[in-house]
UniProtKB/TrEMBL annotation:
Boundaries of every AAA domain copy: 1-174
Cross-referenced PANTHER family: P-LOOP CONTAINING NUCLEOSIDE TRIPHOSPHATE HYDROLASE, PARA FAMILY PROTEIN CT_582
Gene3D superfamilies: P-loop containing nucleotide triphosphate hydrolases (3.40.50.300)
InterPro entries (alphabetical): AAA_dom (IPR025669), DNA_Partitioning_ATPase (IPR050678), P-loop_NTPase (IPR027417)
SUPFAM superfamilies reported for this sequence: P-loop containing nucleoside triphosphate hydrolases
Protein known as: Sporulation initiation inhibitor protein soj
């Protein structure tokens, strides 16, 4: 079972959009997938059409009140389950401080379902607090979304340092799965400059697929649907499917990757 947090302490980088749509396309390609909403804003929860106040949440799991299996919910997508979140998770950062093995609460809970899922995708909050540390301690690898804008790498160095710190002290098997460039607009020179800068910094860790700035991607959460169900033929949908092909190491036609410049 691969456990992959989608992590960046900077907000507005399409972190939740990425967590939702990677999870959905993994499931659509036959992978048994669990999406964990670890953000108190619960946007990943509503983004797959589940009410934020519907039953038990990841908060109850971290407290040890229930198991992962007891907390999981159906999403309407075959092979995709959800552990939802709500605003009560806000207090977990403080409450975890006094708990025994506080960094390992999520990892311990996930140990019980290692034979039940192929992938666990975790939508992390936009911070490097105890919730994110729990996700990274449980992780087999991590995906870092980076928006194609000025100061794209701002804060990412701190995140990489945190990842290395956790790797050295709490989880020596974790590695960076990939860096995903998001919200690209090829009509601007800036986007191309940012892509070059990020590829120069992270090298082969950067996915070939780049996620475009697309209206359908921003509309979909308002309808409680992932892009695969809301607008499956849109450029954003095609690109998230291609990212999942890269994760699964399924070959992608080069023309499809470069085609986004014509689609935008």
């Amino acid at each position: 079972m691969k456990i992959i947090p989608i992590c960046n302490q900077k907000g507005g980088v399409a972190k939740t959009t990425t967590a939702i749509n990677i999870s959905v396309y993994l499931a659509l390609k036959g992978q048994k997938t669990l999406l964990i909403d670890l953000d108190p804003q619960a946007n990943a929860t509503s983004g797959v059409g589940v009410e934020k106040k519907e039953g038990t949440t990841i908060y109850n799991v971290l407290h040890g009140d229930i198991t992962i299996e007891q907390a999981q919910k159906n999403t309407g997508v075959e092979k995709l389950s959800l552990i939802s979140s709500d605003i009560s998770l806000t207090g977990a950062e403080v409450e975890l401080v006094s708990m025994l093995a506080r960094e390992h609460r999520l990892k311990k809970a996930l140990n019980d379902v290692r034979e039940k899922f192929d992938f666990v995708i975790i939508d992390c909050p936009p911070s490097l607090g105890l919730l994110t540390i729990n996700a990274l301690t449980a992780a087999t690898s991590v995906i870092i979304p980076i928006q194609c804008e000025y100061y794209a790498l701002e804060g990412v160095i701190q995140l990489v340092n945190t990842i290395n710190l956790i790797k050295n002290n709490l989880n020596n098997e974790m590695f960076i799965e990939g860096v995903l460039l998001t919200m690209a607009d090829y009509r601007t020179k800036l986007t191309k400059e940012v892509i070059d800068e990020v590829r120069k910094h992270f090298g082969e860790k950067v996915y070939k697929t780049v996620i475009p700035r697309a209206i359908k991607l921003t509309e979909a959460p308002g309808f409680g649907k992932p892009i695969a169900l809301y607008a499956p033929d849109s450029p954003g949908a095609k690109k998230y499917e291609e990212v999942v092909c890269e994760i699964l190491k399924i070959p992608i036609e080069r023309s499809e990757i470069e085609g986004i410049q014509q689609e935008v």
